[in-house]
Each structure stands twice: as structure tokens, then as C-alpha cells.
Fold these 2 entries.
Entry 1:
Amino acid sequence: MKAIEMITSGFTQKPRKVVKTGDDSAASSLLTYVRRMTGWHQVAVCTLAAFVALLNLAPIELQRRIVNEVVETRDVAVLVQFGIAYFVIILMHQAFKYALWLYQSWLTESTNGYTRAHLLTL
């Protein structure tokens, strides 16, 4: 039961607290709105997205190496090692992709909640 609680604990994160500016004016541009709502989290999301994109290239490189080295030498031990590495890379890619999705969803829900609450006070 502890494992399920650990996995689902990410779903119960409280929304991000957005600093209030003190006035009811709208943001002057979309960039200002995004910066106000997400702050430095936007940089972290972009960094994580770039890492996921780079990690997406790893299976292609590994497939190339499998074809070049294993097919020519016909070494089963090397094929098993490449297979395990391929499996680990795919799992890492999916885990980071899921973390990116959770992070983006958390920021989106925080922004939506703040905007709705702000609009209700107008």
C-alpha cells in the first residue's frame, strides 16, 4: 500500500501560489502572463522538455549500434547487453516524459485555478 501512496502522492500537490500584483489589470502581453503565472518553473519545464527530446534520440543511436556491431559479429552476449540498455533507455524516456506531463499539468491547473479565482472576484 505504501508503494501506491508514493506513486499517487504527485497527484495531490497543492497548486502553485501566484504572487498577486495588487491591481486587477490584465497582463500586458502573453509573455507577461506566462511569466507571472509560472515564474521560473517555465525554465524548468523547457529544460526538462529539451532533455526528453534528446533522450528520444538515444534509442535510434542504440539501434544503429546494434545493427553495426551485433549483426556483424553475431555475438549473443553483446546483443543481450544492448537489449537491456535499450529497455532501460526506453523506461527512462517514458519516466521523464511522464514527469514532464505531470509538471506541465500541475502548472496548468495552478494557472487555471488562480485565473478562475481572480475572475470571480472582479
Note: The chain has five helices and no strands.
Entry 2:
Amino acid sequence: MKRTWQAMAAITLLSAGSCQFATGCDMYAAPGLSITARDAATGASIQGNDVRVILSAERQADTTRSLPASLAYESPGTYTVVLEVPGYLRWERTGIRVRADQCHVKTVQVTADLRREG
């Protein structure tokens, strides 16, 4: 009985591995969104940990405090991205569509051009 169970487990593992290689997929988790920001006037990259990136979709919400940000790992859907950065006006983009392909989501690059307050 023990040998039968071991043989069945080995066959299951081998078939799972061969399926992975047959489709060309791997175990990598792709971000749905890659978010960067820049100063609209100068084009300078805005990075740091004193920011608020709010991501929302039909099924999930996520917040991070750093830029650049990679979010929505392996989660297709339609997203709204909000950036709140000290010294800049709030930035929002709706209707950002993340699609799945055969193995992973296709990462959407989002670049926010932020305008200074005042």
C-alpha cells in the first residue's frame, strides 16, 4: 500500500512538472501594475517612502508607501491608481486594464506626471 501511494505521488509530481514545461510557464509571479512617478515640470523621477499609492479594483485594494511600486501580482482586472505625494497634487487614473496571458498577467506600466501644489 505504501509503495502504491509513493508511486502515485511520483506520477502526480512528474505530470505537474511536465505540464509546467509543456506550456512554457514558470513559477514567477508577475506584477499587474508597475507604477512610477515624475515631476510634471522637470521630468525628474519621484522616489521615496513618504508617499501613498492606493490601488483599487473590483476584487481588491492595496496600499504601499514607496515608489516605484509593483502591485496586483497575477491579478487581472480593471484598476484605479491614486498617488498622494507630499508637495504634489493628488493624482488619480481610472480604468487601467490588466490582462492575463497564457501563464501570467501582462504588466501595465503606469507613469504619473505629478504637478506641484500651489
Note: The longest helix spans residues 2-23.
